[in-house]
Amino acid sequence: MTEAPGLLSILVRPGHPDFLDLPWDVELAAWPGATDRSIELQRGLSRHEVQFVSYGGACVYAVKELPEGLAEREYGALLEIQARSLPSVEAVGHALAARPDGVRVSLLLTRYLEASHPYRVLFQNPGLERYQERLLDAMAGLLVRLHLAGVYWGDCSLSNVLFRRDAGQLGAYLVDAETSELRETLTDGQRRQDLMIMEDNVGGDLLDISMVTKLPDALRPEDFGANIRRRYESLWAEVNREVVVGVDERWRIHERVRALNALGFSIQEIKLVATGDRDKLVMRTVVTDRDYHRHRLHDLTGLVAQEAQAELMLNEIEELKARLSHKGRRDIPTSAAAFRWLTDSWEPAQRRLGPRVKTEADASELYCQVLEHKWFLSEEARTDVGLEAALDGYLARFPSRKGKKGKGPGGNG
Ligand SMILES: Nc1ncnc2c1ncn2[C@@H]1O[C@H](COP(=O)(O)OP(=O)(O)O)[C@@H](O)[C@H]1O
Ligand SMILES: [Mg+2]
Question: Which of 294-308, 333-347, 368-382 comes out lowest in average pLDDT?
């Protein structure tokens, strides 16, 4: 059927090579001597054989050999994890191969996560003490994200995570989804179970590494997993905290959104629920992960913006949606709120900013600066000053100069 010896079937997502030139009839461990595509890269400990192959430039892939049937399952789990916008390696495909001795194996193809490091490499670097805090936070943050999205991991460990330095932060990415289960939401029991497994595994990981490297004295292996758990628990509580706001305290909704943004979480949805008290609302937020906003904003409004700008604008749309829903006593679809936002906020603002906007990029940047200014004024006044007042204030404070773009400072100090 295929021209590749040993290859029984292969499925590859669009945009990748067909992989037909790989030595499928050779066991994976022997690929380095069997194909020029094989390259050596750092990797963590694993149960299964993993090799890397290069198709030039940034096109590097990881191949993992598993018993028949398992690659397909893990591929499916990774796709679903990706669909939920969670940080993980990217599923590319899976294959079924037969070895000369007749044994059938399945192989999982993922895209090599650029610039990532297995924990062993981080732990063997002299700078570990500096990283330790961030590493603990990154692990806790990853688990919170997965759990919020309904992913039970079943095998969280340092070995099953890749770490990447992202804009001064340390990001953690799920690499091994073999045991994961995807649900709508997780029960507290499932979360507890996952944390227990994490603590066990992390203890084992540290024992492993302590055999080959002297760990810094300040790093207490026996406490490491428990430390991640504590961070997980406070992050979980913070993210799920309900906040009571007065009906005229819209700026406080925004304050909460910004606090969550600062923790690295983005807001997908805000729900305002009336309390028994007529003047109070309970705010609940649904958080999501980075990178989600640009696409979402574009889907809803057709606007093209940077991720951070899109996040601000979507926050506004969600705030508007929550307000309209509360006022009309029924759920307003986000698309309807987005339309209202375009006609009531975005377009009037663009008309007033008009001459300063030279490119499409200016439009969202300036709009976001006006938003920043609005929040600054609102927090100062402890009431929502509204867009008109913010535009007045912004245009007066940052008059446009001839020949220069009317750029205000990023913040509002
Ligand atoms: N897409 C990838 N990018 C970078 N490294 C990878 C990738 N896939 C696997 N690895 C490396 O291979 C190691 C083992 O992969 P893993 O999926 O955990 O295998 P196992 O199921 O055998 O535990 C990981 O710790 C990681 O270092
Ligand atoms: Mg693993």
Answer: 294-308
